[in-house]
C-alpha cells in the first residue's frame, strides 16, 4: 500500500511539473509571436 501511495505522489509531482513547463512554453511562444517584427 505504501508503494502505491508513493507512486501516486510521484505521478502527481511529475504531472504538476509537466503542466508548469507546458504553460511556460505556450507563454513564450505567444510572446515570440507578438513581438516578432513584421517583415
From TrEMBL:
The superkingdom listed in its UniProt entry is: Bacteria
Q: Where is the signal peptide?
A: 1-22
Q: Decide whether keyword Signal is in the record.
A: yes
Keywords (A to Z) from UniProt: Signal
NCBIfam families per UniProt: actino_DLW39
Q: Under which name does UniProt file this protein?
A: DLW-39 family protein
Amino acid at each position: 500500500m505504501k508503494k502505491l501511495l508513493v507512486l501516486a505522489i510521484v505521478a502527481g509531482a511529475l504531472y504538476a511539473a509537466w503542466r508548469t513547463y507546458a504553460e511556460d512554453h505556450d507563454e513564450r511562444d505567444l510572446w515570440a509571436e507578438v513581438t516578432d517584427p513584421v517583415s
